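Final report, Chapter 2: Outcomes

The project's central promise was a pipeline that accepts a single protein chain and returns its three-dimensional structure in a standardized token representation, suitable for archiving and comparison. That pipeline is now operational. To close this chapter, we reproduce one record exactly as it appears in the project archive, with the input sequence first and the structure output second.
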Amino acid sequence: MKDIRRKVRRAQTIVPFGVGGIIDLRGESFVAADIRSWAANGDRVESPRLAAKLGVLEFRSAPVIPSGKAAYASRIGPAYVRFPKWLFCPQCREMLLWRPDHEQRDKQPTCGRCLGRPQLAPMRFIQVCRAGHMADIDWRRWAHSRGQGHDQRQCQVLRLRFVATPDSSGLEALCVVCAVCKAERNLAGISQRNILKQTNLRCPGTHPWQSDSDEADACEESPQAVQRGASNVYFPITHSALDIPAPTGLSEGDEAAQKVTNSPLWLDFISAEGGPAFDAFRTVIANQCEVSEELVESIRRRHVHDSASSPSAADADDDLSVAEWAAFSDPGSVAGSKTFSVRPTHLGIEHDDADSMRELDARVSAVVVADRVREVRALEGFTRYEPSSGDGEEGEGGRVVSVNTRSRTQWLPAVETYGEGIFIAVDEQRLRDWEELQSVRDRTRRIELDLDASFKADRLRGKSGPRLLPRFVMLHTMAHHFIRQLSYDSGYNAASLRERVYARSHGPGSDLPPQAGVFIYTAAGDAEGTLGGLVRQGRPPYLAETLIRMLESAQWCSQDPLCSDSTGRSLANLNRAACHACTLLPETCCEIDNSLLDRTLLIGDAEVPGFFRDIVRAALAESADSVELP
């Protein structure tokens, strides 16, 4: 493939135009190649906790080409391959199977038959399968699949035309015609399940960026025809972690242990036990960290013992949330960091304030504003046609394709972002008393039954923990409404805000502290990443007013009573009283795909008391009292 450049922002190389994703640019269509196309000198991104979770050595971000220097710089960024390769001329309707040697630098593909050389357009439909493969539809076979007579059935010519007839406005008006034998077939029914299998079309077991030297997979999945821009073409699998510095006041031994476990060779050292490179890794780590080899060996033995004895040690999501929860719960323990600057504040509510304010103050136990946070987002892989179930078993959801389709990857593409945020923790004792109410437990149990039956169960439990607690659904719903209200008050739009919900359940016998809070933050790809809007809203008296308005607005939905009385909404019935008119957010905001939401657990109804119901009632009574009747 010749060097053809187009502009893509660094953050877009993770989502939505990461490995395997399709990008449309000025009438052209490309797909991102795997990380083998990335240069070895990509910018390194540090995130030891996330690397340990994903089992890789490091992260790299796409190198940035300075503005105006693309014509003079060698190709160092990710490669994007033209796809689909079948193009057609919008004037003469001739179809052309594009080849890499047709590419010309900084030129779009054009028709050589028509005057004015109009730009060729990519075909609208492609084929994908649950194994993650994607390819062009064999349009020659499609056109001849209903051939009449020997000549049409045996025709092997690739001269095709994509004709649009005025007879209809549907897909039956679009027809692929052989220019030689005149065999034809329209596109009616092409989006039906298994239509390609019925036409004897098989999955080639390849990805668009693979070269001739790459061996194709033996794929037994049935290919499915989908539109190029359909939402089920690409499901990226991303992970993120906040950069939490080491707590201050650690002993000398703790600091040395943390330095050793943060070494880029630590994972190799752990996996090399009993191998010929084991001693070499131990020596190199000891020299790099300026500690003795005996200390490195003792840290390894302690790590192995903890991994074997702790039932939650293998739960990497739990590990990430525990460290972040501890940092927000005790901001003073992480002082002095350039990438994680937090400070405690309060709602500013006094004893003589309104009842609604005092009720709010009783339920909010802590408020922390983050002037600066750093987040690392990494792309692990993707699925096609169906999302992954998260358990790695075949037959449940799409199969995960790694960002390196040829060998086991040692690093993942990632991007670091900076921003600001607000952390709110609720009172643990009041929350426990509320969770013990039978009506609250019954409503959450019904949601959990739908969760158990969902193909997303394992992935969602990675966030909620082994049991779905009422606090998780309530706080997740609160986070969504908080983002919607902040989009009005802070100056940020909702799509630029993100959530982190801390309400995990822990396994039996765990001594980890309970969690009950949310962190709403914004993250941008530049060095600053903050406008100050969230920090301002986190200060008194703005935050209390924002929370009261949030709870008041959560009572109303334009789809009520259908929304409030719902017994199951969204995919797999994982939501209750939550819809696009009141609760759902852009997909970039939510950790778990707009699932496990319920306004009723937040504000209550006639049967279930919401956690913040008393605040809402007090606020409504105060509003009624302030109205002057004639």
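Archive annotation: The longest helix spans residues 470-489.
This record, like all others produced under the grant, will remain available to the consortium after the project formally closes.
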